[in-house]
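Final report, results section. Input specification for complex C-07:
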Amino acid sequence: MEVNIILAIIVTSAATYLSRFLGVVTSEKIKETSKIFRWFNCLAYSTLAALIARVIIFPEGNLLEIDYSIRFIVVFVSLLIFYLTKKNLVYPTVFSVILLSILSSLD
Amino acid sequence: MVNIKYFLQGFNSIKRLDSPALALGFCFIAIGALLKNLGFSIQESIFSTLLTYALPGSLVMAESLLVGASLLNIFLAVWLVNARLYPMTVSLMPLLLDKSQPKWKYYVSCHFIAVSAWLIMKSNYQSVEKKHRIDFWIGIGTATWSVAILGTAIGFFAADFLNKDIMIGLAVVNPVYFLCMMVGAMKTIQISLSVIFGIILGPLFFFISPEWSILFGGFIAGTIAFLVGEARGS
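Structure output:
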């Protein structure tokens, strides 16, 4: 490995903390009742949703080996279970792993 | 310094049956195993989660190391994928800011901003008086951070026993869990539209620029959702 691991970790943490730090600096001037706060709230949810959708549709690493139709079925059924169980988070999470193993073994 | 009562209240919020501790732990088990396979020592693996504590950033670092990227490239790639932490911080900290609290608490505890702790705080902050929210937040952050560090250590030591099927299973837990959590948070027009547009535009922008897709897609999705929500009186 060409790059020193410790340096890579420090660079990674600095790049990550930068956004958090700038966020606190900006927050000092923003009131929770302001329009700009509501806008940032929308941006936070939308970027998170964009990230999660990207991980499912264009994954990197292990998920890439699972056919996209299986990924869609697993996510869709898990969401259905989430609603059927009155928004319980444990059932869809556990079920997603079971369904993924069943479907990928059939594939 | 930190009010123990509110700290513990926050810390214990991850003990609930439907807390994100399970999904978070699974994800970091996968990270621990990945880092070991990359040649990290146990100290380096724990150091990584301790200092970064944002899963996509750690994944990007691992991938960059694999392809022999330079430090500058690692910095830019991680910054791009973790820039979403900026709007997340701006949409959380004003809810916690109180003049009676010292500023260092905010600058230190912003390190805990990651999707799991953020979503727990967003759905619970109203139950805590504003003055004590920062201590409650530090409790939540410490708890999720500890789970991440523990998960990394377990993953590191269990790496030899984790075959490909288990790793794939661990990889699906993360998006499914957070997608359900996001969908569960869709309680206003603005948030609902932000989530729906983000889900559509994030992958769409991937065709234009994979690196910038989250930021561009998220920015446009969130701005449209905000404007529509404002026009409809939210």
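Chain B has a mean pLDDT of 91. The first helix of chain B runs from residue 4 to 12. This concludes the modelling results for the funded period.
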